[in-house]
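hiii so my PI (J.) wants the whole complex modelled not just the main chain, which honestly fair. so below is everything: two entries, each one labled with what it is. i double checked the lines twice but i was tired so who knows lol
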Amino acid sequence: QITLKESGPTLVKPTQTLTLTCTFSGFSLTSSGVGVGWIRQPPGKALEYLAYIYGNDDKRYSPSLKSRLTINKDTSKNQVVLTMTNIDPVDTATYYCAHSLFNSGWYFDYWGQGTLVTVSA
Amino acid sequence: DIQLTQSPSFLSASVGDRVTITCRTSQGISSFLAWYQQKPGKAPKLLIYGASTLQSGVPSRFSGSGSGTEFTLTISSLQPEDFAVYYCQQLNGYPLFTFGPGTKVDIK
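here's the output for the full assembly
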């Protein structure tokens, strides 16, 4: 059974760096045919793709946020870590991580429950 | 960059109604499109991928069609548990994984 769970701070001050961890089970992030993505959703707004990491360590970023994002994986801990620099109140959102497979077209078939991050002084 | 639009952005319907939501992309993406359902306070749930393939466990009243730049999600007979927000997502244009703005399906 595949599960994912996001963790990190609930409150962050502007200009700080946000670090979020996605801890997963039920799959291994070691092959090119599997990947984990990060998606966020500001309150009352739409989903926004942030970053993606393939099992072969290839990485993709949203062009609009690329300069602020870094995604990495720790296969020994079954974790994917997303860092976002220079946080701003507009980054207040629920942050999700999600699993995808080449065999199912890379769509996000399993999602974490999400973690709400509030950016405020 | 590829852009996704959804129409309508909001629709009000009754239980038993047939509901259709459209997603359009600014460039052709073949059939690399998915539909997600999101209920309040919950993570999105994958309904359809590859434009028309039903994800395992999803009721057959949900169906998807289209290719290229225009896609539709149809709910053949709306049920009380289907009131939610629906998002399309593309995986063939740049940037990958782009989501549409969403369509809220509300109770009439």
